């Protein structure tokens, strides 16, 4: 008999989160700052070079607004303007902030050495990711040294929230109110694709309950299999998920379940214990 998947309406049913005013406007939210940060997020790597028009299209902002913001970000060193090309790339100030944040994550110390060992033993790409709005962002990544992993993903890569194992794992650990808002936004983005998306998200809750991980076998990309496990690190860090991924031709779904899954779960528990121990000793 086919398993019945819980509806996301049941999973996330709650009154919408109240805003600071009756009009639904958060008066503590600084729109100009948010737009500037969205421009920095438009760059998918530190080497990418974008024009004001390309940035405007990625951010959904008027080109005139983008022109003023890129000028300001360049003046502060967060962007670098390549005059002969009329394009921008990420500036040293942004890269410095990234390095500082990365080096100060106690999580990196807790996972040191373990992620590479896990990648080699499972012949997969092992990554840590946090949620970034309706995407997930890779903050660490290790490839198997014994097998050629051709996935074009690395630190700073962003993946969709609703179709990837890592993204769905993040959805399973959200608070009920937050999850309801996120699901509504995902549905609004694509009503036509929502039934399949909802089915996959619902299945993620069954996966967690029955397998201890979330799976995505060809859901995001038909040539990629993956499993993901949320890390229980407390409230000192944003929610983090550990993910194992590999081409379907290299590691089958069956192998992911029987061999990769238990090793990723074990690694997750080791990282949690190391992190908590380091936190208590700090």
TrEMBL record:
GO molecular-function term, one example from the UniProt record: DNA binding
SMART domains for this protein: HTH_ICLR
Alphabetically ordered keywords of this record: DNA-binding, Transcription, Transcription regulation
Gene3D superfamilies named in the record: 3.30.450.40, Winged helix-like DNA-binding domain superfamily/Winged helix DNA-binding domain
Domain of life per record: Bacteria
Annotated SUPFAM superfamilies: GAF domain-like (SSF55781), Winged helix' DNA-binding domain (SSF46785)
Gene Ontology biological process: negative regulation of DNA-templated transcription
Annotated IclR-ED domain residues: 93-277
One Pfam family from the record: IclR_C
Protein name: IclR family transcriptional regulator
Species annotation: Cupriavidus basilensis OR16
